[in-house]
Amino acid sequence: MSTNASEFERAQRVLVGGVNSAVRAFRAVGGTPRFIARAEGAYMWDVEGRRYIDYLGSWGPMIVGQSHPKVIEAVTRAARDGLSYGAPNVMETELAERICGIFPHVERVRFTSSGTEAAMSALRLARGFTGRDAIVKFEGCYHGTADSLLVKAGSGALAFGTPSSAGVPADLARHTLVAQYNDLASVEALFAEHGGRIACVMVEPMPGNMNLIVPKPGFLEGLRELCTRHGALLIFDEVMSGFRVALGGAQELVGITPDLSAFGKVIGGGMPVGAIGGPAKVMEMMAPLGTVYQAGTLSGNPIAMAAGIATIDLIREPGFFERLGERCSRLVAGLNDAAREAGVAFCARHRGGMAGLYMLPQPPASFAEVQRQDVDRFKRFYHLMLDAGVYLPPSPVEAFFFSSAHSDADIDATIAAARDALKAVA
Ligand SMILES: *Cc1c(COP(=O)(O)O)cnc(C)c1O
């Protein structure tokens, strides 16, 4: 019989670490990854037939739940007409029209097959548009695996970045300047020293890759002002937060307009899609109209576009985000009550359908504060929740994801499991 353990052993003989994306290997929590056989609505089932309430949601895309009938129908219909053409199809225009309608600054869209490609191409576009090489990113923000973005702070506040992965040339990393999220002074210092060389500031406006972090009042406003003053482009990486914290992403919540936005996750509804969007005058620097090269064999393929269109049409229904937010609030309040009852330094919060839980007495505001979590306690909590049938992202530095498929009963079951787990780790 197939078990998670037997499948993990088998996988490790042919897949590096048994997985195709590092965090799936459960290294941050220990134990055996669950091999998923099937998912529907708010649930996933592993190969042993055990059911989990799904707060992973494929790391964000599944905002209407797994296997939503309308999404499956759209994908099935599209599949009958062919999987990929490598020539234009009308669904590309239809998904782009929706994105332009939702994000006021987006006049042109270019689709890719992943968020990584979207962020990478946005960088190249910003460099091509400004004719500058340096970029600013933030410690703890994740933008996929492009070389220029796998960079962490070097030593000393003004030092150039150093590669955070082997294989990234130090010569490339020195063009990446690393600042601290929610610390405007750290960005001002970089502009004071290197202003004329900076092509763009790339930021997760509401980070979800150092767990959920919320921008302090004035921080994103300050980035907007610095970029405008120095002729650099402000790029919001909304791959995770777009169509997730609000229909119009973090930029809708904070009321700040970037020069370029990167999208992914929800816009593919579970299929591989990324996108860059922005004003025509910047976007039209890209091939075939401009000199910045960008292309992709499967970009805009009909199956991915169909899944994206069906998902966007479900979430742009009036009241969708209000309902999603209210229900997620109820879950978060229940988790916070459970922590108080158990007397554990634990808390939770959310924005729209994106949430964070922290082994800390107060929600963190910075990467440094996120690092102060009790990791050992998180590991024990994680496995108690998993044993109780609740699947959270297997890392203390990741956000978790709520969907419209989560029922009141699912919320209650999750809170009950957390109450027991928190008491056990107190
Ligand atoms: C997931 C993510 C990416 C990378 O997207 P992939 O589709 O995994 O390549 C980029 N930026 C952010 C903010 C993300 O959350």
Automatic annotation (TrEMBL):
One of its GO terms (molecular function) is transaminase activity. It is found in: Cytoplasm. Pathway: Porphyrin-containing compound metabolism; protoporphyrin-IX biosynthesis; 5-aminolevulinate from L-glutamyl-tRNA(Glu): step 2/2. It catalyses: (S)-4-amino-5-oxopentanoate = 5-aminolevulinate. Keywords: Cytoplasm, Isomerase, Porphyrin biosynthesis, Pyridoxal phosphate. GO terms for biological process: protoporphyrinogen IX biosynthetic process. It comes from the Bacteria. It is an enzyme of class 5 (isomerase). The keyword Cytoplasm applies. Its main location: cytoplasm. PROSITE patterns: AA_TRANSFER_CLASS_3 (PS00600). The keyword Isomerase applies. Its EC number is 5.4.3.8. SUPFAM superfamilies: PLP-dependent transferases. GO terms for cellular component: cytoplasm. The modification N6-(pyridoxal phosphate)lysine is found at residue 265. Belongs to the class-III pyridoxal-phosphate-dependent aminotransferase family. HemL subfamily. PANTHER family: GLUTAMATE-1-SEMIALDEHYDE 2,1-AMINOMUTASE (PTHR43713), GLUTAMATE-1-SEMIALDEHYDE 2,1-AMINOMUTASE 1, CHLOROPLASTIC-RELATED (PTHR43713:SF3). Homodimer. NCBIfam families: hemL, PRK00062.1. This is Glutamate-1-semialdehyde 2,1-aminomutase. The gene is hemL.
